[in-house]
Amino acid sequence: MANFSSLPESIKQLHHSLEPYIHERQDVSHIRKILSAHLNRQSDEENACPKYHPLSLVDPIIDIDSLPNSLRGVRREYARCARANLKARKEYEELTRGHDNVIKSIKCGASDNLHSDTSLESFLQLVKFRQKYERLRILQDHFDMLEQQPATAADYLEPKAILQNLPSLPRAPLDVLPHATGTDNAKWGGLKQIADQLEKSVLNAKGALKREQKSLATVTSQTSTKGLRSPTNHTVRLEALGITRNELISWIENELSKAGESAPSDEAITSNSPDKRGEDDIETHLTLIQKQYARYNIARQSLICAAIGKVELPLTKTSDDTPTILLPNESPQSEALSSYIATPYLEEMIKVSNEQKSFIQQKSYLAISLAKQLKGSSQGLDLLVEESHLLPAHPAPAVDSKHKGFETVTSFGEELLNSEKPDMSHRARSWGFAAQSAGAALSKEISERLQDGRLSFAGTSEHLVLLRQHLENFGKGQEKATLSQKLEKDIWSKLDGNLGVIMREGGSVDLI
Length: 512
What we know:
Residues 260-279 are annotated as: Disordered. The chain is mostly helical. Among the domains are: 21-110, no CATH class; 120-149; 221-414, no CATH class. 65% of the residues lie in helices and 1% in strands. It has helices at residues 9-18, 25-41, 74-110, 117-148, 159-162, 191-229, 234-258, 266-271, 282-308, 332-387, 390-393, 412-420, 424-489, and strands at 501-503, 509-511. α6 crosses α10 (332-387) and α9 packs across α10. The longest helix is centred in the C-terminal third of the chain and has 66 residues, at 424-489.
C-alpha cells in the first residue's frame, strides 16, 4: 500500500474503513477462480448444466410446513416467505413438466400433418410482431428524448420550433405603396425612398420632354426651310414677313412712347391681330407696313442726324392725319448752341434706349424659358398624377373660398391669370399632403398590427406559464406515484410504524 501519512485524518479513516474490501489484482483474480469453482460444484454433474433456481434459496428437502411458535418477528416472516417460495417452486416444476410433455406431443403430431397454412400464419404473425416492435421502439425513443430533456427545463420549448408553423407578417396595402411592390426582394424603405423615386421619375419625364421638344424643333425647322425654299409658297412668305415687320414696328413704337414720343396709332394696334388676317386683307396690310416702315426710316434718320449734330429738318409729328409744323427760323449761333446742348442728352438717350432694349430682350427670353420649364414640369406632373395611385387615394382637402373674407377678394384679371397659369405650389402641396396622409395611414396600420402582436404574445406567454405549471404538477404527481409504489413494494411497509408489531395479510397482529 502507498504511504498516506501526508493525507488528512478524514481520508485516512475512510481508507482504514474500506481496506478490507480493497485487494490487488492478483488477489481479485484468485478469489474469482475460487468462486467459479464453487459454483461449478453446484451444477448438475450428469447433464453438465446449472439448475434453474437461485443458489441462495433453501434446499427443497427441508420441510417447513409447520412453523414453530418459538419463531418471532423477522424470523417468523422469513420462514413464512420460504414456505411460499417452496410452494411456488413446486407448482412451477409441475407446470414445466406438463408444458414439456405437451410440446413433445405436438412435435410428434406436427411431423406427420404439415400443411401450407402454417408458413403464411407464421409470416403474418411475424409482420404483426414487427409492427408492434416499431411502435414500441418509437414510443421508447420519445420517452428517451423526454428523459434527456425534461419538460421543466428552460430550453425545452424552443421558440424556432414553436414559431415554425405560424403565418407570416401581413404586408402593407398596395394602395399605399404603388411603387414598392415591383419585385419580391424589394423592401419599402420609408417616405425618403418614395421621394427619391418621384424625383427620378420627374427627371426622366423632363429628359423625355426635352428630347421631344428637340425633335419637334428640328422637324419644324426642316419643314419651314423647305416651305420657304419652295417657289409656290409666296403667300406664306408674305404673311411671315408681315408678321415680323408688324412685331418690329410695334416694338419700336412702344420704345418711342416710353421715350416721350406719341402713342402708337390705332392702325398699329389693329395690325397686331394675326389671327384675323386672311387672303383678302394682304394688300391692306402691305400698305400699312409700307407706311409704318417709312415713318420708321424718317425717325431713324432724324435720330442719327441729331446724334451727329447736323439737324437740318425741323421736328414734325409722325401722324398722317395732322400736317407738319415747322419751327421758327433761328440764327446759326442759336442752332449751333442748341445742337451743342442737345448732343449729350441725345447720347444718353441712345445709351438708355440700348439698355432698355437689352433688358426687354432679356425679360422676354426669361419669360419664354420660364414658360417652357413651367409647361414641361406641368406636363410631367400631369403624367405622374395620371399614373399614380397615391393622389386619388389621399386627395388634398378643397379650400372653400366662401369663408375667406373680404381681404381675399381678387379681380377678374387675377382670377383669369390664375386659371390660365396653374399654381405649381398647389400641386406640390397636394403631393406633400398625400405623402403625409399615406405615412400616417401606414403608421396607424403598423401600430395596430404591433398592438395585435403584443396581445397575441401576451396570450401565448400566459398559455406557456399555464403549460409549465401543468407540467410541473404532472411531474410532481408522477414522483409521488413512483414513491408510493416503492413504499408499497418495500418489505418494511407493513410494520405500520412499530417495530414490535407485524401486520398479517388477514389483518391479525403478531407481537414479537
